[in-house]
Structure formats: C-alpha cells, structure tokens
Amino acid sequence: MDLPIIRRFWREHFQKRPQTHPTHVIPDLHSVLKAIEHGAGISLLPTFMLDEHLSRNKVKIMYPSFTVHNDLYLAYQVKNRNLPHLKTLIETLKKTV
Questions:
Q1: Which of 28, 37, 50, 78 is the most buried (most CB within 10 A)?
Q2: pTM of the full predicted structure?
C-alpha cells in the first residue's frame, strides 16, 4: 500500500515508517477531505486544500506545529541560464520561499 503523504510526514517527525494500516483507502485527496467533513476519520492533507473548509468550520487542524516542507528543484540547460524569462522565473521563485 502506498501512502506517500503519510509516510513522508511520519518519517520526518518520527524517523521511521508508520506502523498503521488504514481501514479504508480513498485515492483522491478531495474525496478524503469530503470524508473528513462528514466525520469519517482523520488524515494528512496539504494545507492549500483547507482554506475554504477551515473558514466554514468543516475541518480542524489538530497539530499545526507538525509541518513538512517541500523542496523545489528547477532544472535547465546551463547554456540557457542567462535567458531573461528563466532569470525572471528563478527570481520569482526565490522571493516566494
């Protein structure tokens, strides 16, 4: 069973793979969020999905201090490093971090 979001969270905070075995697996994150809204358990979800649902008091963040950050890598050919649109993209990404 592949649970990449849960496995990554668990490894980052507990330094091991989770020992839990889910009772149900819902493959779509939006469906997981709907199930949570209807009281069908808990899950780990990306925070960008929760804004609207938090404002309607449909979901609750249980442990806000437990976060996982993603690294973004940009690959390009070295010969193109001075292209204006590539430089603009790189600078924009640096500002948003």
A1: 50
A2: 0.63
Kindly tell me the sign of the dihedral angle through the C-alpha atoms of 21, 1, 50, 48.
Answer: positive
> What is the rounded distance in angstroms from the CA atom of residue 12 to the CA atom of residue 49?
21
pLDDT tens string 9-19:
989 999 998 88
Q: Are 85 and 76 in contact (CB under 8 A)?
A: no
What's the CA gap between 42 and 14, in Å, rounded?
A: 18
Structure tokens at 75: 């690959």
Judging by beta carbons within 10 Å of its beta carbon (0-12, 13-18, 19+), is residue 33 exposed, middle or buried?
Answer: buried
- The closest of 87, 88, 6, 97 to 44, measured between CA atoms, is 6
Amino acid at site 54: L
Query: Residue 6 is encoded by which pair of tokens?
Result: 């849960």
* Token duo for residue 89: 């993209």
Amino acid at residue number 19: Q
Say what the pLDDT of residue 87 is.
Answer: 93
